[in-house]
Specification:
four-stranded antiparallel beta sheet; six-stranded mixed beta sheet; 26% strand; 7 helices; 284 residues
């Protein structure tokens, strides 16, 4: 049995073909797997009692790598389609709020075919959120985008997580996306769950590092303490004190919370400090 938190973002990570999308489709009711599926107290499937709630009656939003927007409608009317799926009395998310959070106000009058890949995905995410879902499913929403467009969309997904109380299950085979967004991590391989738990604990566990390969490492929460414009570096004060690291300045404001990933392959051990080393961060 797999039990996941009802807050934050849960990342499903594993190689292509390991069953991540199958899990999402079972949660959505698009595929009927054997067993039981429940969201809190709401049972969506229970084979023992013969219960099965069809997809259209499940309070969920679904975002895939194919944006599935209506090309004959402009952005506003695409968003209104999602909004109209929910009775006014049950709407928990306002159109203006989502438009502002995802930075798509200037796109409202444009046709879908005139949008970039990143813009289309932001609109698709907005439409899914406007259905006021109790659960948001995201199936590799950035896999069809290049690195620049991914960098454009990722901050908006992160912002949604912090501003809206909607649990998200995020599927990806790109560990950098999962580490950036997820609070909880599920590792999958060959159709089975290999391990799951809080992200920071999972990445630090020695017994689950092998599926990550060269991506093994730790995640640290930090705050931007200083920005050096000359060298384009930022000082990151790691939560808990006692550790200060310098990294490339990503433009975050002073005091802004960031998530810092340290890969095992980037760590060197020495018996004494080496002032002649090119390694920027040396911890005693």
């Amino acid at each position: 049995m797999l039990s996941l938190p009802l807050r934050g973002i849960t990342g499903l990570f594993g190689p292509s073909g390991c069953g991540k999308t199958t899990v999402l489709r079972a949660l959505a009711g698009l595929d009927r797997a054997s067993g039981r599926v429940a969201l809190g107290d709401h049972v969506w499937q229970d084979d023992a009692s013969g219960c099965f709630v069809p997809t259209h009656r499940r309070e969920l939003g679904y975002v895939t790598q194919e944006h599935s927007l209506f090309p004959h409608l402009d952005v506003r009317r695409n968003l209104e389609f999602g909004l109209k799926r929910v009775d006014v009395a049950y709407r928990r998310v306002a159109l203006d709020c989502v438009v502002e959070l995802l930075g798509i106000g200037r796109l409202l009058g444009r046709r879908v075919l005139t949008l970039s890949g990143g813009e289309r995905q932001r609109v698709a995410i907005a439409r899914a959120v406007l259905t006021s879902p109790a659960l948001l499913l995201m199936d590799e929403p950035l896999s069809g985008l290049d690195a620049a467009r991914k960098s454009e969309v990722l901050p908006y997904i992160d912002l949604l997580n912090h501003e809206l109380d909607i649990p998200v299950i995020y599927v990806s085979h790109a560990i950098d996306e999962v580490v950036r967004l997820a609070d909880h991590l599920v590792l999958m391989d060959a159709g089975k769950v290999f391990a799951d738990g809080p992200l920071s604990e999972m990445l630090a566990r020695l017994d689950v590092q092998s599926p990550l390969g060269e991506d093994a490492g730790v995640v640290l929460d930090a705050v931007v303490g200083e920005r050096d414009a000359q060298w384009q570096l930022a000082r990151l004060d790691v939560a808990g004190g006692g550790c200060v690291l310098w990294a490339r300045d990503q433009g975050a404001a002073l005091g802004h919370k960031v998530r810092l990933r340290v890969l095992a392959r980037d760590v060197s051990l020495a018996r004494a400090p080496d002032p002649d080393s090119s390694i920027t961060n040396q911890l005693a």
